[in-house]
Automatic annotation (TrEMBL):
Annotated keywords: ATP-binding, GMP biosynthesis, Ligase, Nucleotide-binding, Purine biosynthesis
Species of provenance: Spongiactinospora rosea
Alphabetized PROSITE patterns for the sequence: GATASE_TYPE_1
One MF term in the entry's GO annotations: GMP synthase activity
InterPro entries: Class_I_gatase-like (IPR029062), GATASE (IPR017926)
SUPFAM superfamilies hit by this protein: Class I glutamine amidotransferase-like
One GO CC term on file: cytosol
Limits of the Glutamine amidotransferase domain: 8-174
Protein's name according to its UniProt entry: Glutamine amidotransferase
Amino acid sequence: MATSRVLVVNNGTLSLKQLRRRLEDLGSETDAVPVSEVPDRLDPRRYQAIVLSGTKVRAYDRDHYRPLIDLITTAGVPVFGICGGMQIIAVAHGGELVEGPQRVGGYEVQVDLDDPLFAHVKPTVTVFHRHTLYLREAPAGFRAIGRSEHAPVEFLRSADGRIYGSQAHLEFRGDGLEILRGFARLYQ
């Protein structure tokens, strides 16, 4: 079987190296491109999935992210937005971000075990957070598949099950790796 390849879109994360390492530990090769250099189209023979990294700025800037949103909308492969990556996806689909308490470190999240993303975890996971913005509710065409005390949408899934999002940084902590393992099963 051929090795799968993931296009990692770098939205300015400080943990690109760790994110790529996690995906590679799960058996995927990775290529990283800055968000300003995303291709117009994705070659599904070359890439079997897209992962959007976190970001420190611009989640509200729809014009800046238009090429990225166009790419993930037309790609036809599984997509996973992590932290700011999820927020970019949500805002582009009409979601609203709100300020909340600053969370840095491990936090418990309840997940919907009926979703294949969570095939390798228990109903409560501990994931790493580093942010103050939260998605108020899932935008049209998406649903929340994980929640916590401070965030009603910790995990997000599109109605067709192709696009996922995580408020947390899954590149850290064991439960994050196991959630990424569930995502990898969608494209490997």
